[in-house]
Amino acid sequence: MSGIKEETGLLGRLERYGESDAYPFHMPGHKRQIKWGITSFPNPFSVDITEIEGFDNLHRPEGILRRAMERAAGIYGSEKTYFMVNGSTGGILSAVCGLTEPGDTILMARNCHKAAYHAVMLNQLRPVYVYPKRIPGWDIQGGVSAAEVERLLYLHQEEGVSAAENKGQGGAIRAVFITSPTYDGIVSDIRGIAEAAHRYRIPLIVDEAHGAHFPFGESFPESALECGADVVIQSLHKTLPSLTQTAVLHVKGNLADAGEIERYLSIFQTSSPSYVFLASIQNCMEFMDGRGREEMCDFAQQLGRWMKRAGSLHMLRVLTDEECCLQKGEARDPSKILVSPGRSGLTGTQLSEILRERFHLEAEMACRGYVLLMTSLMDSREGLERLWEALCAIDRKEPGNDEKMGSAGITARLNRGLERTGQTRLSDAWRAKKERIFYKDACGRISGSFITVYPPGIPMAVPGERITVEMAELISESRELGLTVEGVSEDGKVEVAL
Q1: What Cα–Cα distance (Å) separates residue 62 from each residue in 17, 91, 261?
Q2: 219 phi and psi, to 5 degrees?
Q3: What is the CATH number of domain 417-497?
C-alpha cells in the first residue's frame, strides 16, 4: 500500500491512499484524475437521488435518460444503447438470456468472463466451446479464429433447420459469444466471426468490456459494433473516465431482439440505480465525443513513443505487435502494456511487488510470467515516465537464475488441456448434491462449482467439467503467488458433484 497506514474505516484508508504518491496502472480508466472538467463532480451526496419528477426512470426511460441513451447510440453508431450501473456483468447476463431460451445451445469462447458462464447456468444452456489461439513466447491467449467459429456452426447446425426454428430444442446453435479484446488486449477477427454467424442467421454477442475506448481513436482497433456484432457490452469504467460499475450495452441489426434483452436488463439491474453513476455515463459520453477524441490522439502518440523506448530494455521484455503474430482481422490494444520479467530472474508477481513497494506503481494484474499495466487517456506524461524510469532501474540489475520462473501466463493456462466435452451439463452439475474435498484430491472428479483465478475472472473449471492434474497445479501455483482463487476455500477445499 506504498506506506499507507492502517485506518479503522474504509473511507479513511481510501482518503489516505488518494493523498499518497501511489500511481494507478489499473482500472478504473479515470485514474483518480480530475482534469478537463470530466470528473469534476459535485459532492455526491448532494446529487444522489431516486426516481423523482423530472429525472426519469432507467427501467422505463421517457425523458432525460431516454434522450441521453439515444445520444449515446448516435455516438457509438448503434440502434439502441442502454446505460448500465451493474457493470458489464448485468449486460452479459441480459444479452445471453434475452437471445436464448432454456435448453438452447450457445457457441462461446472458452476464455469468457465468469458472467457468461453464469448466464449459461441460469438459462440451462448447452455450451459449445471455441478455443483461442496462444501467442508463442508469452503463452497468453490470442484471438478466436473466424474459420473455427464457422466450422463449429456448420457441425452443430441441423440440416435444413434454422436456429430460429429450433428454439429451446438444443442442437442448432442459437447465439455466438466472444470476448474481444481479451484481458491482455488481443482483439479477434470480429468482422469474420460476425459474417460466419450471420450466414446462419445467428446473432453475435461480444463482451468488449475492455474496449469502450476503441471508437474514439484511429490508432486503436475497430470496435466490435463497427465490425458487425449484433450486441456489444462495454465497461466504461475500465478504460474511460467514468465511475466504477458504469457500462453500456449496444444493439444493432435485426438478429438481436432488443425488447427481450431490455426485459432482462430490468431483472439483472438494480431497481434503485445510482443517478451519480448515470450522470457519470452521460458526462463521459459527451466528453469522449468532443475533447476526448483529441486527447485519444495525444494518448496514442504518447504510447507510441513509450513503446519505441521499450525495445532498449535488456532483461525485461515488453509485448509488441510483432510478437503477437496477428492474423487477418486481429489486432492488439496498445493501451495494455505487458511486461515479462525476461532474463531478470524475477517472477511477474515479484516484479509487480517491486513496482509497488519501491516505485509506488500499482499494476492491474501479475502472475508468474508477466505483469499487466493498464493505461488510459487519463494517464499523465509524468505517470508514464515514472513507469519507464522504474522499468529501466529494474532492468539494470544483473540477470538472475530464471530456470524456475517459467513463462506461462494465467490467462492461457486457464484453458490449456480443456479441449473436451464436459461430462455433465453445467446447470445440472451446479444443482447436484456436492461434497467438499481438498483440491489435490479432487483430480478426476466433476467440479460442482466455478474455480476461477481473479483477475482475470476466467474459470479454469466450470460445473460439469472434470478437474485435472494441471488445474490442481495451477491452483497451487496461484495460491503460492498470492493470487485470488475463487471457488477454493481457505483450507484448500473445492466442491465436487456426487
Answers
A1: 41, 21, 18
A2: -85, 0
A3: 3.90.100.10
